[in-house]
Task: structure prediction
Amino acid sequence: MWDTLVRPIHDHLPLWLLLWPMLGAVIVGVARQVGAEAVRRTMQVNLCLSVALSVWLVVAYEPLKPVDSAEQAALLGPIERFQFRDSFEWVGETKTALLERTRRNGDRQVVEVPIRWGPDIRCEVGVDGISIWFVALSVLLVAIAASGEWRVGSGEPNLPDSALRTPHSPLPWLWLQASLVGTFVALDVVLIVVCWMSTLLAVAWLMGQAGDSQRHDVTPRLLKRGWWGGWLVLLGLGGLVLAFGWLRPFPNRVETPLVFSIPELMAGIRQSSMSGESALLWASVNNWLFWLLVVGFTGPLWLAPFHRGFVEAFASAPRGLAIVLAGVLLKVGVYGWLRFILPLFPELVRQHGDGFTTLLGLSSLFAAVLAFGVSDWRRRIALATCSSISLSLLGMTTLTLEGLTGGVLRLLSHGLTAGLLMWLLPSRSGEWLVASGEQDKSNATPVFSNSPLATHHSPLISARWRVGLMRFALFAWIGLPGLGGFVAEFVTPFGLFQHDFNAAALSLATSGVIAWMWVRAERDSPDWSHAGWSPRDTFVAAVLVTLNIGLGVAPQFVVDRVQPSLLSLLPMDREISATSSGTPPVAEVR
Amino acid sequence: MDTLRTFLIGALVGAPLVAWGLSWLEPWLSRRAMQTCISVAALLSLLSVWGLLLATPEGQAVPWPILSWLRMPGFEVTIGMWLVGLMAMQVTLTAIVLLVLLSAWPRNASFRWLMLAWFGVTLASVAGNLGQLFLGWSLSAWASSELARQPDPASGKSHVFRPVWLVQRVSEIALLAGIGLVWMQFDGTLEFLAWTPGAIGALRPELIESIALCVLIGVIGRCAQLPLTVWLETESGFAARAGHSMAKLSDELVGVWNVPNQHQVAERLKADPRNRWHEAAGDSTPAAVLAWWLSAAFLPVGIGLQLRFEPLFAFAPHTRLLMVAVGAFTLLMCSANAAAQNNWPRVLCQIAVGQCGLVLVALGLEQVDVEKLTLLFYWQSVMIGVLLVATRTEDSRSSGRVRFSGAVLLAVLCFASGLWGRHLVMNMVLWQQSEANLSRAEAIAGESASLVFGSTESRVWTLVVGLVCVAELLTSFALLRAWFSDRRHRTMQKTAAQPIAWRLWMTVGGLIIGGLFGFQSSHLQLENVSPLLPLSAIGMVLAWWMYSKPSALPEKVSAAMGPFARLSRNRFYWDDLYFLLIVHPAKVSGEWLRWFDERVLGSGARDLRSRLLRSLGESAEPLVAGSAMIGALTTLSSVAVLAWMLLWLRS
Result:
C-alpha cells in the first residue's frame, strides 16, 4: 500500500504540486463541456488536493535529515537541505557517442562516451526549509483567492441560470498556482525565471478579466517592473552560471560544462571562491553579478518610494488577485534574496549592510507614514505591505540568524494577515455581483439584495463578524502576543540590535507607526452594508485565524524547519557564532 | 503529585479560557446559563489556586516551567508558572470580584471582553517570566479597555474608552522598555530567578534606576496615578467630549440637589444637556465595569507588578523616592477630587486610586511589612468592588446611586473609623517608619547633620505626613458628603425598594468586612490609629455643616477656592495635548507626504519622463523612416555589448 500508492506521491511532492494544477486545467477544460457546476466542483477538488499536498510537504520535510553519501556531504554539507528532488532533462540532452580509439599496439577500438548536447538546463525541483513555507503560502492563498473570486452561483437553489454561469475562466488561477509553486520549488536557474515570468502572465490575464476600469493603465506598469526585474535576474543568473564555469577546474576538458542547478551552483561557488586564483576571478565579477541580482530582485518588491505602481494595481485588482499579490507574489523578490544574494554574496551584503539597512528602514518608515495619510483601505494595506516587506528584507540584510528568522516569519504572518484583511474587505470589482457580463458596479445588482445567495445572515450580523475579524487581523498585523505577527516583531529586533542600532530604531519606529495607523484605521470600518456572510466566509476566516494563532502560539514548528536552511545562508563566522551559543539540535548537527 | 499539579495549573489557566470560549455562545445561551458557567469557572479557578498553594512550600515562590515557546540559538523563551502567596491571593480576589459583579453586569454588555480580561489578569498574576507577565498585562489592559465601549456598541464610541486605551498603551510601552533593559542586562533572560542580589548589585546604579523608572511609569499608568490619571471619569469629562469649559466646572461642585428649587444654578445645570444632571446625559461607564477595573484588572495588577519588581526597586533609591512622591500627591489629589464628585461610583473610584497611591507610598518606604500591606490593599479593592456593584440601578445609564443605605452607612463608618485597613496602612507609613527613622538617626547621630533614613529624606517624609493627614480629612469629608447627597436624592426621587439579590450581595460584602474585622483585630494597634481619627471627625463635621441642609455655602466655598476648585475636577487636558503634539503633526505629515508622493514622485516623475521621451522622439524624428533598421541595429549592438562584457568579465 505504502510503496505502491503513497510513496510515489510522498517522494515527489514538489513535482506533484507543480503538475497537479496543470492536470487540473485539463480536467477543468473537460468539465466545462458538462456545465458550470462541474467546473466549480472540479476546481474545489483541485484546490483542496493542492492544499492537502502542501500540508503533507510541510509535515514530511525533515529539517535535519542527513545526506546519503560522503561525497554529497563534502559538497553540500552534512544536512540534506534540498529534499524531494526530481530532475529531468529539459534543454539539451545527454547522448552516447561512439569514439574510435587507437591503442599503442595499433589496434583500433570503438568506445561509447556520454556527451552533452546543448546546455544542461533541467526541469529540476526540490524544496528546502525556506521554500516549503513559500509553497504552502502560495497554495493556500491561491486556493482562497480562487474560491472567493470564482464563486458566483455556488449551488444556491433560487438563482436564475444567468447567475449560475461562471463569469470568468478558472484557468488563470491554475496557471498562477502552477507558476508560483514552480518559482519556489525550482532548483534550476532557467526554470525559476521562467516560472516567475509565467506568474506575471497569469496576473495579466486575471487583471484583464476581472480588474476594475483602471486595469488597462495599471497592469502594464505592474508587468513592466516585473519583466525588467526578471530580465535583470536572468542576466545575473546567466552571468553566475558562466562565472561558475570559469571558476570550476576541469583538467581533462577544454570547455567546462555550464551548471544550471541551483544547489550545485551555490555550493560550488561558495567553495571555489574561498581562495586561490578562483577567488581573484570571483572578486572581479561578483560586484557586477551582485548588483544585477540586487536590482533585479528588489525592483519588483515595489519598495517605497517606488511603490506607486503596485499600490495602484493592488487597488484596481480583483479581491482574489490582490490577496495573492500582497500575500505571495510580491515576496518572490525576497525569496530571490534568500536563494541567491545572501548565500552567494555575503561579503558584499556585509560591506553594503549599513547602506542597505538604512535605506530599507527609511523605505519602510516612509511607506508606513504614507499609509497613515491615506483613507482608502486597499491603499492602506498596499502601503503597509510595502512597509512590511521592507522590514522583512531589513532583518535579512543584517545577516544574523535572528534577523533572517524574523524576516521569514514576518513574510508568513503577513501573508496570512493580509489575506484575511483582503478577504474581509468589501469587494470592489463585482465578485459578489450577478455575473451579467457587466463589471461596472453601478450597473450591477448586489446578489444578496434579491436572492439568498452568499449570505446566511443579515447584513448587521455579517458586519459584526467582519468588524470582529478585522480587529483580529489588525492586531495580528500589529503583533499582539499570541498571534502570528508577534513572533516576527519579537525575534527581528535581536538581529537588528546586533547589527546596527539605527536600523533597529527605524524598524521599531515603523512598527509603531504601522500599529498606530491600524488602530486609527480601525475606527472607520469599511462600508459593509452590501456584504453578506456565507459559510465559505466562515471557513476561510477560520482557516486563516487558526493558522495565525497557530503561528503565534507554536512558532517552534516553523522555526525548527526553517532554521537549518537559514543557518546555511550565513557567512561562516556568523554561522559558527550562531550555533556555538545555542540550542542543541541545530548546533549538534552543524 | 506532578499529574495533580499539572491538572491544577491547567484548570487555573484553562478556566478563564473556557469561559471566554463559552462567552461566544452568548447569543444562544440565556443570561442565567452564562452566569452559571462563569461562576463555575471562577470557583474552579479558586479551588485550583488554593490546591496549588497547598502544594507549594511555605513562603517560597516556586517556578514551574511548562513548555518551550521559542528556541533560538542564543536564547530560549519558556512558558511556565511562578506562584507566590500574594499572587495567589490576587488570583483569588479576582475570582471573588468576578463572582460579585456577575449579576450586576449590564445587560447590553457582552461577557466576552470580561472573560478575556480575566484570563489576562490570571496570566499576569502567575506568569513564570517577564514575557508572560507582559502578555497578561497587555491582554488584560486591552480587554478591560474594550469594556468601556460596551455601553454603546452601535456607535462604537465612548468618551471613556479613548483615555483608558491611551494611558494603558503608554503604560505598556514604558513597561516594555523596562523589560527590554532587563533582557539586555541579565544575559538575555526574562526569568525572575535571574534577579539574584548579586546579579542586581553587579549592574550600574543608573541602569537599575532606569529599569525601575520604566516599571514605575507602567505602574503609574495602570494604577491611574499622577500624572496619568486621565482615564478616571470625573464630573468634567474629557477633552474628547465637546462643550465643557472651565467656567462651568465649579458649578458642578455645588450639585443640583444642594440648592433650593428655582435657584439659578440648579436651573442652569438642568437646562444644559451636556451636564451630568440632565436627563439626556448617560454615557458613563457602568459601575460593574468600574468595579472590574478598580478591583481586579487595573489597581491590583499594577501593585502586583510593583511587587514582582521589588528586588530591583530595593536597589533604586531615587525611583523609590519618586514613587513616594507620586503616591502621596495622588492620594491628596484623589481625596480632593472625591470631595467634588456628585456620583457614588466616582467618589469610590477616586478613593480607590488614592488608596493605591497610599500603598505606593508605603512600598516606597522601608521597614514596611509588604505582605500585610498588599493583603490589606487587595481586600480593600474587593470591598470597593462590592460597593461599586451595589451602586447599580435599574437603568445603568442614570446617575448610579447606592441603593442600599445600610451598606452605604456601613461603608462610610468603615472608611471613617479606620477599621477598614486604611488607617493601618497609614500607621505603617507614618509611625512605623518614624520609629525606624528615629532609631536609625540615633545610630548615625553625630555623623550627619540631617536626618536620613532609607531612601527618603526627612523633608519628603514630613511632606508625606502632611499630605496623608490632609487626604484623610478630605476623604472623610467626601464620603459623608456623598452620603448626604445620596440620601437627599433618594428622598427627592422616592426610590423603590431593593431587589432581594442586593441583600445577598450585601451579605457577601458584610462577610468580607467581617473577615477584615477579624484580620485586623490581630494586627491593629488602636493607639497608633487614634491620631488620625480627629482628622476624620473634622472632615465629617465639615461635610455635615455644608451639606446636611440646602444652602449656598458650597457655592461660596467653591468660588473662594477659585482655581483649586477647578483643579479638583481633574481636568488636565492630556487628551488635547496628545492630539496637538502627536496626532495632529502625524496627520499633517502623513497628508503632506501623500501629496509629495502623488504630485512630486508620481506626476512629477511621469511628466519628466514623458518630457524626456518627447524630446528624444522629436530629435530622432528624421530617423523615423528607417525605424526598422534602427531597431535592428540597436538590438545587434546590445547583443554585441553584452557579449563584449561577458568576454571582458572572463578576462
